[in-house]
Amino acid sequence: MSDEDGYFGESVAARYDESSAGMFTPDAVDPAVDLLARLAGGGRALEFGVGTGRIALPLAGRGVPVHGIDMSRAMTARLSAKPGGDTVGVTIGDFATTRAPGSFAVAYLVFNTINNLTTQDAQVDCFRNAAGHLEPGGCFVVEVGVPELRLLPPGQTAVPFGIGPAEWAFDTYDTATQAMSSHYVTVRDGRAEHSSIPFRYVWPAELDLMARIAGMRLRDRWEGWSGEPFTHESRRHVSVWEKPAD
Ligand SMILES: C[S@@+](CC[C@H](N)C(=O)[O-])C[C@H]1O[C@@H](n2cnc3c(N)ncnc32)[C@H](O)[C@@H]1O
């Protein structure tokens, strides 16, 4: 890990928006903001792993009061420096355990960021932490990929996802522990550099159990933010769990 900012330190933060440009387009952002604004329903929203504000800023722009938790000062400094950044409160810490002030109508965790918690215990803690922030009747929303184990033939542990003339990217899987890592090998001036980031992949049904442990129930599961049906072919899901109303 690079520094106390975790895997999203200064060098990653400096190029995050550019390297994730496809996720900043209106097509990617607007449906998420629409749904989250609807779920907030006039109340407050809490983003776990708020980053540079890709979702938090447009959501705040709709008039929803938004607060974020993130361990990376480098990422959140970019958020705060953007227009409207001063309207989004930030608490620095681990979103599995850190408490933000107040209670919220909706908490959300997007862009596969639940996978950044590399143990099952930490993922369970994250659900408990979300539930602890929610008002009765509030919702926790997670956007995450369905584990791509169907791409792994027996005996194989790596799946390439980006092959170029000077860049190779691949995921490695340990199906015994659900640990996975994304690896990036870049060749510059004849020298190869390797970087990697660890994740824990997690199944939709496993998330439902985590939600139950935290006292929440599945309310909706879609393939995407616009309510597309979730099927056996879906490669990701947007799931909404509800904390019971008192
Ligand atoms: C892939 S980025 C997503 C940022 C933003 N949500 C977005 O959609 O663009 C993941 C963010 O989560 C933060 N993060 C990862 N693990 C974390 C943890 N355990 N606690 C707090 N922040 C974490 C990183 O610092 C980073 O800002």
Automatic annotation (TrEMBL):
<dbReference type="GO" id="GO:0032259">
    <property type="term" value="P:methylation"/>
</dbReference>
<protein>
    <submittedName>
        <fullName>Methyltransferase</fullName>
    </submittedName>
</protein>
<dbReference type="Pfam" id="PF13649">
    <property type="entry name" value="Methyltransf_25"/>
</dbReference>
<feature type="domain" description="Methyltransferase">
    <location>
        <begin position="46"/>
        <end position="138"/>
    </location>
</feature>
<keyword id="KW-0489">Methyltransferase</keyword>
<dbReference type="InterPro" id="IPR029063">
    <property type="entry name" value="SAM-dependent_MTases_sf"/>
</dbReference>
<keyword id="KW-0808">Transferase</keyword>
<dbReference type="InterPro" id="IPR041698">
    <property type="entry name" value="Methyltransf_25"/>
</dbReference>
<dbReference type="GO" id="GO:0008168">
    <property type="term" value="F:methyltransferase activity"/>
</dbReference>
